[in-house]
């Protein structure tokens, strides 16, 4: 039965939503609206647990990412990890870009952030590791140039995915989403079925699907070599909110555990 359900997840993605609809009462908040005691900070150039510059803080029932206590940004990319890993789940959150981008951060980080999943444990990351080995649901907002800039994309630090039936080694793959603006609350959803089907949803629209997240490729530096086993499928891992130079707010972070519905034997 389990194998049949996994096959249906590939052939008929709508099946996922039928099962989700049966379990609405089981949504669990990951953020209590008061503090980040259930989360672990890891910022490049700093030891795990050091919330340098009070980068991640809580106000008005939101997790805020701020840089007012920074000098030079100095590639201090950061991530805030929920304390336990997940494998099969449906995650929902809301985000909005706000404030002023840090001008000493790389230009690509303007109105750019994301949600990492299937990430390595932050406690396995050396002080000088820049990005976690993970898959990213990338969040972007439109720039002033009027060009389309979709959100809910896929990026892959130290990883690859299978897209449209083939191993795809591009670092980022754009979604089909609309372009949204700064200071606008956006609802993002991520449905993860272990090492099989992954679905990105933005404001209720399915914008990207792919499968077989796995370790491989560049765009991660300073890692412990024992953590990067290229070719290994990623069936579980940590969830993290990103900090890379643009102030952003996150709220209403909640998860529906699908272990009892789509689970490997």
From TrEMBL:
It comes from the Bacteria. The keyword Signal applies. Residues 1-23 form the signal peptide. Residues 26-255 form the 3-keto-alpha-glucoside-1,2-lyase/3-keto-2-hydroxy-glucal hydratase domain. Pfam families: 3keto-disac_hyd. Keywords: Signal. This is DUF1080 domain-containing protein.
């Amino acid at each position: 039965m389990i194998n049949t359900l996994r096959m249906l997840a590939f052939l008929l993605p709508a099946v996922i939503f039928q099962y989700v609809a049966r379990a609405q009462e089981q949504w669990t908040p990951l953020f209590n609206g008061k503090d980040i005691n259930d989360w672990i900070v890891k910022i490049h150039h700093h030891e795990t647990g050091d919330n340098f510059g009070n980068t991640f803080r809580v106000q008005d029932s939101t997790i805020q990412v701020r840089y007012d206590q920074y000098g030079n940004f100095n590639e201090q990319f950061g991530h805030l990890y929920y304390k336990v890993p997940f494998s099969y789940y449906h995650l929902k959150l809301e985000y909005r870009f706000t404030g002023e981008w840090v001008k000493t951060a790389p230009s690509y980080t303007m109105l750019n952030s994301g949600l990492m999943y299937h990430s390595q444990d932050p406690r396995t990351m050396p002080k000088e590791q820049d990005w976690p080995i993970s898959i990213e649901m990338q969040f972007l907002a439109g720039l002033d140039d009027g060009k389309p800039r979709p959100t809910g994309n896929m990026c892959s630090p130290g990883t690859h995915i299978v897209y449209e039936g083939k191993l795809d080694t591009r670092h980022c793959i754009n979604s089909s989403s609309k372009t949204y603006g700064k200071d606008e609350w956006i609802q993002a959803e991520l449905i993860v079925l272990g090492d099989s089907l992954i679905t990105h949803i933005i404001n209720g629209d399915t914008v990207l699907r792919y499968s077989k997240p796995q370790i491989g490729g560049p765009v991660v530096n300073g890692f412990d070599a024992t953590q990067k086993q290229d070719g290994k499928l990623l069936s579980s891992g940590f969830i993290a909110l990103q900090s890379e130079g643009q102030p952003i707010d996150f709220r209403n972070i909640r998860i529906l555990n699908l272990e009892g519905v789509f689970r490997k034997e």
